[in-house]
Specification:
- By secondary structure, the chain is an alpha+beta fold.
- It has one domain: 2-Layer Sandwich (Histidine-containing Protein, Chain: A).
- It contains 3 helices and 4 strands, in the order E-H-E-E-H-E-H.
- The longest helix has 13 residues.
- The N and C termini lie far apart (29 Å).
């Protein structure tokens, strides 16, 4: 298991478009990917779960990957989130 804490830097937080980009990228991962926001645990492969979490700009999240390619998957997701998820 690997995990990393990040700050969401998208101006509008993780609304529909960036949530979709993140869920799609997580869906391509062979690892089980979770997002922790405070005490909440979110399935990162579900756009609906990400959107329902209402993650706003400046929120600290923790990404957790568990699986055979967890390091590679984590690197890919961290890079995507830090780059603004296409926005």
């Amino acid at each position: 298991m690997v995990s990393k804490k990040l700050i969401v830097n998208n101006a509008s937080g993780l609304h529909a478009r960036p949530a979709g980009v993140l869920a799609q990228a997580a869906g391509k991962c062979s690892s089980d990917v979770k997002i922790y926001v405070g005490e909440r645990k979110i399935e990162a492969k579900s756009i609906l779960n990400i959107m329902a979490a209402a993650i706003k700009k400046g929120t600290e999240i923790e990404i957790q990957c568990i699986g055979p390619d967890e390091e590679k998957d984590m690197d890919k997701l961290v890079e995507l989130i830090e780059s603004g998820l296409g926005e």
